[in-house]
Amino acid sequence: MRPRITLKLATSLDGRIATASGESQWITGEEARLEGHRLRAAHDAILVGVETVLKDDPELTARLPGRTVDQPLRVVLDSRLRTPPTARLAGENTLILTAAEPRAIGRARVRRIAMEEGRLAISAVLTALSDAGVASLLIEGGGQVAASFLRADAVDRLEWFRAPILLGGEGRPCIATLALANLADAPKFRRLGVEPVGDDLWERYVRA
Fold first, then answer.
1. In terms of DSSP bridges, do strands 45-49 and 73-77 run parallel, antiparallel, or are they unpaired?
2. What is the 3-state secondary structure (H, E, C) of 104-118?
3. Whole domain around residue 155: which residue ranges?
4. 40 vs 128: CA distance, rounded Å
5. Whether residue 15 has pLDDT greater than 90
6. For the segment 77-134, what is each residue's pLDDT rounded down to a tens digit?
7. How far apart are CA 118 and CA 99, in angstroms?
8. Is 6 exposed, middle or buried (0-12, 13-18, 19+ CB in 10 A)?
């Protein structure tokens, strides 16, 4: 049985995650970021692509004021194994999935899995996560990773934080190409709720 998968998005009103130059910190405000840490703490694992690692060097931990949190497993999709051993997440609680010949990356676990159409096969990613005991997964970036899971029909929920700014067409989209031929093929979700968090808006969806 595959993990339950939540895609978390933090964007401008027009669905951008960064400016054309790649600046993204911080699009949403402090209150939204705190809710993001609560989402991290509620999942077994957090997943990002290697481009997010190379650009932002995230720690990918759940940090909640006033209490200790059991840290989720950190998962990186890295087909060519470009994660540097100096990355902040290259520690014991990290799983790197790759198509390259495995080698040591800090203290992280490295597992080789199959490719499909030039990318890591989502079916193989899900198998590796299940083997690691992951029952719930939070996807945090970037747009190519989000699109890959959506194309595979593997996203169960959306947690979408929208900041009251506009970045325009030159900004980086939160979801890359889905290659849809027909509107009927678009992934469909049902809204569960909308609420303000500081100056931002938090929208929650479940797969229809």
1. parallel
2. CCCCCEEEECCEECC
3. 4-207
4. 20
5. no
6. 999 999 999 999 998 899 999 999 999 999 999 999 999 988 999 999 999 999 999 9
7. 10
8. buried
Q: Look-up: residue for tokens 């600046």?
A: 23
Quote the pLDDT of residue 174: 87
Q: What is the CATH number for 57?
A: 3.40.430.10
pLDDT tens per residue, range 43-61: 999 999 999 999 889 999 9
Residue 136 is which amino acid?
S
Split into its structural domains, the chain has a count of 1
Considering the chain, what percentage of its residues have pLDDT values greater than 70?
Answer: 99
Residue 178's identity, in one-letter code, is L
